[in-house]
Structure formats: structure tokens, C-alpha cells
Amino acid sequence: MNVFIIGTGLMGGSIALDIQQVFEEAVLYGIDKSPLHLKKAKELGIVHHESSLEELPKATIVIMAIPVDTTVHVLPEILDAVNDQAVVIDMGSTKQQICEVIKNHPKRRNFLAAHPIAGTEFSGPQAAIRGLFQGKTNIICEVEKTAFKLQEKALSIFSKIGMRIRYMDPVSHDKHIAYVSHLSHISSFMLGKTVIEKEKNERDIFDMAGSGFESTVRLAKSSPAMWTPIFEQNKANVIETLEEYIGNLQKFKNLMQEDDFQAIYEEMESTNHIKNILNGIKI
Amino acid sequence: MNVFIIGTGLMGGSIALDIQQVFEEAVLYGIDKSPLHLKKAKELGIVHHESSLEELPKATIVIMAIPVDTTVHVLPEILDAVNDQAVVIDMGSTKQQICEVIKNHPKRRNFLAAHPIAGTEFSGPQAAIRGLFQGKTNIICEVEKTAFKLQEKALSIFSKIGMRIRYMDPVSHDKHIAYVSHLSHISSFMLGKTVIEKEKNERDIFDMAGSGFESTVRLAKSSPAMWTPIFEQNKANVIETLEEYIGNLQKFKNLMQEDDFQAIYEEMESTNHIKNILNGIKI
Question: Min CA distance, A273 vs chain B (Å)?
Fold first, then answer.
């Protein structure tokens, strides 16, 4: 079983480590636009071989874990290159453009659109960790367009590394994920920015900041190279979430300015309900 | 050593547990407006005795861990009631109004204004945990206005339970804390609200939400009873932070609308710098 990992960073590296653990026969090949990353990935035991797109015809499984704009760009040629029994899986945080670009590709049936809801705020091969996907949800789009045997092959991997599968159409995926993931990243980045701008003397920040601040700005450590194309591809949905978020913040500010602290209390109390939703995440 | 804990919830309960551990001779008395909370605090071993304001004259140390509006309201009578060797410490997240209200009190020297930067998103006696303050920063305001021996007494407690001390004037405290704590809470509450409003079908939220969402909305579980008076007392500073935060979000949205994703990239990249600041928190 020849598994090609395109993009040997946090996501690609982590799934490579898990695949090695559950499939002893798997031979891992790494492809990365950064020779340094690729070398590091081999050193860390993430892949067995440094490889390149020329070797793709021998792939059993190809996993793409690269920025979503690059995926849209290179996916058609990757499908061109693979053999007829190979399955190509992408792990991007947007699904609509990716599904669109290959919808008429002669090897559409060799592609499976996936979005494993997992990750950390770190990036690069050294951020790869075993068990990242254990118990996490993997959203699969347009499963009916993938050849049945290749679905089975891909799903057996996801299942063995501990993922739960949820099926969804790409339009719904991009709309919902804007709320529960993309908006969180922007809110965190802008919170970090606001505080950094204001607190030029950084001693004042880190002496006074507690775990609450740390938790809300954690995502502001995320990779701009990964996130910029996500926001670009999901522009309309993300702008909609931002408008609603800004509107809610504006309303909160207005209530404060009007000294309507009863309403402020009620805003917070009704949002406390998020406890139950978050408990759901942990199940 | 008679230690009175006024407010036997997360903060008061946690410090009571730590004090018991480091001062074997300490006798803990609990006062709480909720008889149920007080009973629970005794059951959990947080305090030894259920008590009331009438017993305050026998206090060696009084720790106030109640909403900041109630502190402003009752602190003068608590100072009236205590004996001349007692030290009254508050733990509120705002300091200006609290210092202001007792600045001419005949027992001003018996008061120490403190803000331990510690906590969780939970509340009530059952949320109290040992070791909550270990390695955390405690901000002390107007230390020079507290009698020297009483400063020593209070600081020996903070030091024994593992806190680092930072001195600051109340105006600066309230200004900086608006950025690194109060704004985080609002950003989190409004993020939770935005997502709940939109995602009426909650299955869509928790199936798709990952640890990133969980981390950014964690503070939206916080107690409205505790936070409403904090926002009220720190109104001017909080509104300023909100305006800057909304401005930054608006600017981000505009860049997206103008398809200036190079600028979006740069916004995120320059904020990545938050990594170093957060590493500072952990030192």
C-alpha cells in the first residue's frame, strides 16, 4: 500500500503517523514544496521516502494536506497522474470550489472530498502528532461521486484512525463551517491584534493576561498561508458571519452605552446555553 | 487565625481550600447570600462554619469574592465591623470604584485591593479547586494605603499559595484588564451568540465544531451575575476596547470585500506575534 502525503505539515504529517500505526504494510511517500519540510518529515519518521509528483502513478492512496488554493490548482493534474485504482483524498477546510473544479474530470470517481475537523494552532512537520484524529469528526462531501471500492478504502482508514464520519453537501459544509470554524479564527486574530496594538508595552499583557485570554487568542497563532485561501474561497459565507458577529458586538456596545445592564445580563445568560452544545462536542 | 470568606463560589472557595492547606491553624468561616451555596461549601469542606456578618468582629482575615457591585456596596460596612488588626481583601476584576468608595473610610488601612488573575469558566462552590492560584499573578492596587503589618499578613498568604505579586494603580489596572480580560469575555459571548442564533439545528454545531471553536467560546460559559457588574464598573474602558475590536473586524471584512487577500495575509502574519506573548504567560 503506497500512501502519498502531499503537504507534510500538521495535518498531512499527523495522518501519516496514524496510517503507519494502523497499516503495517503502508509505505509512506512525502511530497512537499518545501525541501526543508520534506527532509524534516523524513527525519521525524513521518514518511519513509521523499518523493515527487512523478511517482504518483504508483500511489494506492493520495492525501492532500496543502492550502486550499493550491489544492484547487493541482488536484486536476494529480487525478490525471494517478492510476485507476487510486483514491485521492483532500483534507481542506473548504469544499465547494474543490468539488466544483473536478466535477467533470474523467477521474472524478477517484476523488473523495473530506474535511477532518481536527488540528492545532501549530504548523509544519514538527507539529504533526499521533492520535490527532481520534474521536474527531470527518466531513465527507459528495460521497456518491466516488467509486464504491475507493470509498470503502478511504473510510477504512478514517475508521481505523478513530474518526466519526458525517456526510454533507459542499454548499452546506462551507456555510456551516464558516460559523463554527472560520469565524472563530477571525475573532481570535482580531482580538490578538486589538490587544497587541494597544499594549505596546508587552509586559503589561502577559503579566495580566490569564488563561481566559490565552484561550480566546489561541487560534491567532494559526498559519496565515493556510488560512488566507480558506477565507478567500469561502468569502461570501465568511463575510456573512462577520457581519452578524460585528452586529452583535455593536448591539452589546450600544446596550452598555445606554446603561441597559439588565439586557447585558440577559444576553450573556441566554448564551450560557453554549455549555450544552460544547458538552456535545466532547461526547 | 479566623478567615472569613464572603462569597463561597469558584474564587472564594478555591482560596479557602488553599488557605486550609497552607495554614493548619486557619479556621474558615463562610458567608454567602445563598444558603444553599453556603451549605454546599460546608459539605465540600471549603469552610468549617457557616457564618454571617455579625461574626465579623472576630475575623483575622476577610476575603471578599462576590460580584464587584456588591463589593462596592458592602465593603464600607464590612470595614466598620472588623477589628483593628483585621485585613479585608477583595478579589474583584475591577479596582477603581472599589478603591474610590473607601478612600476616606476611617479603616482604609485595613483594606487591601487585589485581583488574582485566575479562574475558570465555572461558578459556585462545586467549581472551587485546590491550586487554582499556583503560579498566577495577583495584582495589588494602592498597597501603600494598607497598614504595613496587614500587607505582610496578606502577602504571606498569596506567597504561600504560590502567587506572583504585581503592583499597579487602580486606573491602570482597569484600563489594561479591559483589554486582556474583559474584551475576551465579550468576544467569546458574542461569538457564541452569533453561532447559536444562526445554527438553530444544534446538531450542525457540535458535529462540526472542533477544539478551535471550543477554545474561543469557552468564556461564554461564564457567570452573567459576576460579569455584568464588571462591565458596568469598567464601562468606559470596555467600550473603548469594543470600539477598537469592532473597527479591526470591520477592516478585515472590508479587505475581504475588496479581495485584498495579500493584506488579509499580512494582518494575520503580524498577529502571529501573539505566540511570543502567550509564551510569556506560561513562564
Answer: 8
